[in-house]
Amino acid sequence: MIPAPHRPPAPPAPDPAAAPGGDGTPGSAGTGAGHAPCHHGELLQGVFLDAHGNRCAGLVTLPLDGPGSRAEFVPRPGAPARAVTVTPADRGKAGRAAALAVAECAALAGLPPAGGELRLTSDVPMGLGMGSSTSDVIAAIRAVADAYGLRLAPGAVARLAVHAERASDPLMLDARPVLFAQREGRVLEVLGPALPPLVVVGCVLGGGAPVDTLALPVREASDTDVQECERLRALLRDAVARGDARLLARVATASARRGQRVLRHPEFDDLVAVARHTGAAGVQIAHSGAVAGVLFDPAVPDDLRRRVHRCRNALHGHGIPTTRTFTTPAPNPGGTPTAASAPSVTSKELPDGPAHRRGDRTARPDTPRRPSRLPAL
């Protein structure tokens, strides 16, 4: 059965789960600040079944600490709610998100809505599939909420983000592994408290050129596709429950192979061969970009640093630039954070040498230019 075409959700209604921030007594809106992280592509992406048996596009991202977007919102009293100016001017999605957030946050705070100025800075490379636009959008929403003395619940942030950009990565959540319906802004399943320990050697395919997601062919999911995605979902759930890094890497590799039907990265076979020859457990890619990673199980009784060094050298030998080496986040003993300003779970970087990407890359449509190098170690 061919699924009905996706329609953007209706504008979000105010979320009663939002809680006042600051001293808990919002007065007039003042300058607000917000931050959002990025991710390192996906571990799993496809079409899944929700609790009612309906098909949903969904994904599980690989958290990455470090790069992110920061926003500052300065209200202008008396300006219409949608009169939001953005710096840089080409961050249109973030501007739409800020205007939506103004309407919601003003209603929650009992204040008249007012437009204002949104200022954004980011070091997330764009076009590589790391959630750069979602990072901008969430930072903007959080900055507006902060201006009104509020902390929006993650569900409210997700709905606003999806309405602003039609699809959103789960960057408004903590680093727990979740299967997230990116076009609907809802969690299909919490897979567990934390991913198994992994060491990731990051790299970029296609020479680091951005991927134009609007130009990618659209494939309708067949019943066989859905069955395979559900099988991989069950394996990933098992991998998280058992802390099995090698099983998780098998799932990520299988999902990456499926993504190749659309992306067709010419270096993909070389990436997989390097992983196999250096004792890695598998690979992962961004399903809508060029960033990728070779996944190592740190519990394997061998010299991890030597294996990582061999991997980086082998990737360079195949003309695949490496970026950064990092580990998956540890479990968060404090549970899901309520603060909207910063992530509470971080990944640890390994001292493995500098990144090898420099300069700027061409922007994809509806996305601003920004420095594209991944922060080095």
Description:
It is a single chain. The chain has 377 residues and is of the alpha+beta class. The radius of gyration is 20 Å and the shape is globular. Helix 1 (92-109) crosses helix 3 (154-165) and helix 4 packs antiparallel against helix 5. The protein contains seven helices and twelve strands.
Throw out a few tags for this protein.
alpha+beta; four-stranded mixed beta sheet; disordered C terminus; 29% helix; four-stranded antiparallel beta sheet; 377 residues; 7 helices
Let me know the largest β-sheet: 4 strands, mixed
What structural category do the secondary elements indicate? alpha+beta
What count of helical segments does DSSP give?
7
For the termini, the CA-CA separation is 48 Å
Strand order of the largest sheet: 2-3-5-4
Describe the secondary-structure layout.
Blueprint: E1 19-20, E2 32-49, E3 55-75, E4 84-87, H1 92-109, E5 116-122, H2 132-147, E6 150-151, H3 154-165, E7 178-181, E8 186-190, E9 199-204, H4 223-242, H5 245-263, H6 268-277, E10 282-285, E11 291-296, H7 304-317, E12 322-327
Parallel strand pairs: 4-5
Antiparallel strand pairs: 1-6, 2-3, 3-5, 7-8, 9-11, 9-12, 10-11
